[in-house]
């Protein structure tokens, strides 16, 4: 299968690293050149989403009916250019910070990728970035029926791994050469809040994350005159952030996969992507992916996990208001490569 966007590929070595990998230290600019300001991006989405979504739906119908015209091709050209810009930025930043050079503490990691040979797709499953929806799609493509997936109590990832074994670096590189490879990313702070809500605030009783929450409360909840500063039964966001920042300081611990940086989890500088989808433009981006992969007869764009409680964007400002400048700076330093590689900004989160 011919690659859609041929690009220079970075070399990789045969090694599976853990999610606790160390990256080179650098002081990234707070507002990276060319970075997309998160709030401005949301405004742009609201203005443009309806128009381009309508065009993409028309394109999909025309593609299916064999009546594609120049108007729809222009829209697909726009999406192709968007993906080319994102891939170009990723490669530029990887080279700039030498993240495409294997090191003792930072090596290519193929462990989290899924290879769909029949439909020629390769995906790195970034948790809290439409992972539930696309895990469902990959399970459909693996042959599980929608009825089975609705009724089963099995964990979707475990079902998927029965069909998609974890690949070696060599096998992954081979698959990428003949597939459409993609990743879905999200603003790092928004992804962190989503993980906090799902895994800490609304943790299932007696689950691993529920027990973790209890340990966080025991260690980080402050008292005044012998009384706790919060009566919440789950950790506050500030308590959770203090826990995370302490964990980061101890390299022998493995950071939870739901909030580990994408740069650690997928090692994106070692592998080529044809599509870099963003959670903020997901509807457009996944429609484009479905169109170029001719997957419309197999899967449909749908939202499989709306999460619990208020929408993440609705609580984002409130939760970050709990943090002081040192906490926000610590989080930015930890996720700085995710900000840099994928063109996000943290400007709005820093207090004057």
UniProtKB/TrEMBL annotation:
<dbReference type="InterPro" id="IPR005331">
    <property type="entry name" value="Sulfotransferase"/>
</dbReference>
<keyword id="KW-0472">Membrane</keyword>
<dbReference type="Pfam" id="PF03567">
    <property type="entry name" value="Sulfotransfer_2"/>
</dbReference>
<comment type="similarity">
    <text>Belongs to the sulfotransferase 2 family.</text>
</comment>
<protein>
    <recommendedName>
        <fullName>Carbohydrate sulfotransferase</fullName>
        <ecNumber>2.8.2.-</ecNumber>
    </recommendedName>
</protein>
<keyword id="KW-0325">Glycoprotein</keyword>
<dbReference type="GO" id="GO:0000139">
    <property type="term" value="C:Golgi membrane"/>
</dbReference>
<keyword id="KW-0808">Transferase</keyword>
<keyword id="KW-0119">Carbohydrate metabolism</keyword>
<dbReference type="InterPro" id="IPR018011">
    <property type="entry name" value="Carb_sulfotrans_8-10"/>
</dbReference>
<keyword id="KW-0812">Transmembrane</keyword>
<dbReference type="GO" id="GO:0008146">
    <property type="term" value="F:sulfotransferase activity"/>
</dbReference>
<keyword id="KW-1133">Transmembrane helix</keyword>
<keyword id="KW-0735">Signal-anchor</keyword>
<dbReference type="GO" id="GO:0016051">
    <property type="term" value="P:carbohydrate biosynthetic process"/>
</dbReference>
<keyword id="KW-0333">Golgi apparatus</keyword>
